[in-house]
Amino acid sequence: MAERNARPDAPGPRRGRAAKGRALERVVAFDRVGDRYAIVEIDASGGRPRLVSSQFADDPPAEIESGRLVAVAPWSGGLVRTRPLEPMASDALGGALAVLAEGELPERVPAWRRACGALPADAGGGSGRTAVLTAWMPHDDDPRHPGCRFVSAGAALGYAATLAGGCVAAQDAASGVLAVAASGPEGLVIRTLHEDAATGDPIASAARRLDEACAAAGIPASAGSAVAERLAAQRDDRRIAASDDLDAIIGVRLAGWSSADHRSAMLLPAVAGLLALEADPHTRALVGMRCSPPEARPTLAERADELLSSPRRVAAICAACIAIVLLAPLMGAMARQGVLSARLDRAEAAREAHEETARQAALYRQLDATVLPMSKMLAEVTAAAPVHVVLESVRADARSGIEIEGYVFVAPDAPPLDGPPEGLVTEYEAALNALGTLSGVTIDRRETTDGTVTFQLSCAIRDASARATLGTDYAATPLAVVLYGERGRNDTAPLRTRDADAGPRRTASSSAATRRPARPPAGDSDADRAADSAGGAEVARAANTDRRPSGESPPSVDGVPTPLTDVQLDSMDRGELMREWQKRLRASRDESNDEETRARLAQEASTLRERFRSMGSGG
To answer: Residue 428 and residue 402: Cα distance in Å, rounded?
Structure first.
């Protein structure tokens, strides 16, 4: 998995050539010192490497991009071999290093725990180079950093020795490992030894190994003695000492480095970081060991070859292909059936919803054709009536239309009319036509009897739900203002007094009786004349009664309707029953009448209502 996230310049088994193209620009190197970690971060993006930070931490640095994290391998598992090389081209050098690694390094070491590189023989860049062959021997306590590259401590010390042209020594008391490196005219010498500190003097052993390395490299023994003295002066478990020029040379190659500011434990991770940033790919190859094998990524051809290498797999693949060819049409048909079934269910649900909506719409149309907003229609028909026009009955039917009966009544104290009373009926006809809800308004009957104009209108219903257009808005202009002008007030006495409740017919009859009094017969006594006069009045009243329309109830006395007889009830139609019921119901609620009269009127109103209901709509 780490190899997949690696940068193109990260060395590895499948990107080795890419790694040789260019070096990294930023690395984080660390080395474990006891229970802590010495961490160094170096940035080379500006050309010259620069020390970004150096610190001790209890935990290793977090995993970063593969190839940028460099660690010093555990000292106890390190193995280093050096061999001199003849001058050769760079392409041939890689093959030579591979051959040397196969012959010099143990076979039990996995390939990902090997690293082979080449270092200059001395600081001056002599004619020959030295091959450094390193291996990391497996141990149970090896660290696990999948995205990290490792370099052995001996290879790092050898690189430090080539920088200064002297010798370097490192000693770890905990593991008993001593590593020395010396670079001189005779070449590069690296030694990694395991010694038991309990059986001898570690400092004396380090001095003896330094003398041997200096002699093999061709440098004075005094250089080794000086390094041994510096090593003996340290009191830490991990001690590292180098020649005089090494700190200065590291300071030249690494900006921000100073031996006075950094402990000796930081020297090894700093050298490992510089080694990882080397421009020479063969030198940089020493930082190439891994703690675990990289994930293999075979090519497509390799995966196909592995898949088809088994006869059983080939047979299974063939059987699957045959099944797909045979079952694909069936599966497609089943899938299509499922889709169509789902669509059919949705279409059926939509059809049912449409039918239900159509049924509701038909019901609403039927109700609209047969059921009328009676309160609205009555209010409009009544509001359209001119002043002095009294409506006696309004019969409405959705099919046959509306029939209106009424009369013109002018109260004695009302303002006089501008024209004849018959003109109010024509004016009412025009107002009904102007409503907009009615059509075909026709005057079926208009009669004038004894100064009273009765009429009957009929019309068809155009649109009962439309808003009617009224000529006079009584909410804005009260009736008093309409009758009496701006001087009119709502507290003006009403046009129809209690004496006028009997309607215009009574007023007309009374006027006729007054105009045509009964002539008394001849007689001498005052009693006879009084009786004759009373008889004449009775005859006049009977004559008045004869002039009333058929079924009309007797005139009231002081505004109270007279009792009804069965003959009168049988002769009344539905309109007359409704009018008489309204009169008696209104009078039964008038508290000015006595209790007995109100009870009689209430009983008669109940009888009229029952008779009206029993007649049905055809009465």
So the answer is: 14
As a whole number of Å, the CA-based R_g of the chain is: 64
The two structure tokens encoding residue 122: 């001395």
The string of DSSP letters for 409-440 reads ---TTSPPPSS-THHHHHHHHHHHHHTSSEEE
Kindly indicate the confidence band of residue 459, based on its pLDDT and cuts at 50, 70 and 90: very high
- Asked if 50 contacts 42 with a C-beta cutoff of 8 angstroms, the reply is yes
Q: Side chain identity at 236, as an amino acid letter?
A: D
| Nearest by Cα to 6 from 198, 300, 288, 262 | 288
Amino acid at 33: V
Give residue 200's pLDDT.
Answer: 64
Contact present, 177 and 76 (Cβ < 8 Å): yes
- CA distances to 228, 314, 374, 439, 463 from 370, in Å: 123, 82, 12, 17, 12
Q: Per-residue DSSP letters for 281-349? A: HHHHTTS-B-SSPPPP---HHHHHHHHHT-HHHHHHHHHHHHHHHHHHHHHHHHHHHHHHHHHHHHHHH
State both tokens at 361.
């719409």
The two three-digit tokens of residue 408, written as one number:
């013109």
How many CA atoms are closer than 13 Å to the CA of 94, on its beta-carbon side? 10
For tokens 């009830």, the residue is 569
Task: Collapse the DSSP code of 56 into the 3-class scheme (helix H, G, I; strand E, B; otherwise coil) and give the result.
Answer: strand
The H or E element that residue 395 is part of is strand 389-397
Q: What order do you get walking across the sheet with 167-172 strand by strand? A: 187-194, 177-184, 167-172, 238-242
Dihedral sign from CA coordinates of 482, 486, 490, 491 = negative
* Pair of tokens at residue 483: 């009758």
pLDDT tier for residue 107 given thresholds of 50, 70 and 90: confident
CA dist., res. 230 & res. 208, Å (int): 14
Contact residues for 145 (Cβ-Cβ < 8 A; gap 6+): 60, 63, 69, 71, 291
Measured distance CA(545)–CA(502) in Å, rounded: 13
Between 133-142, 332-341, 479-488, 584-593, the lowest mean confidence (pLDDT) is in 479-488
| Nearest alpha-carbon partner for 288 in 91, 122, 133, 131 | 133
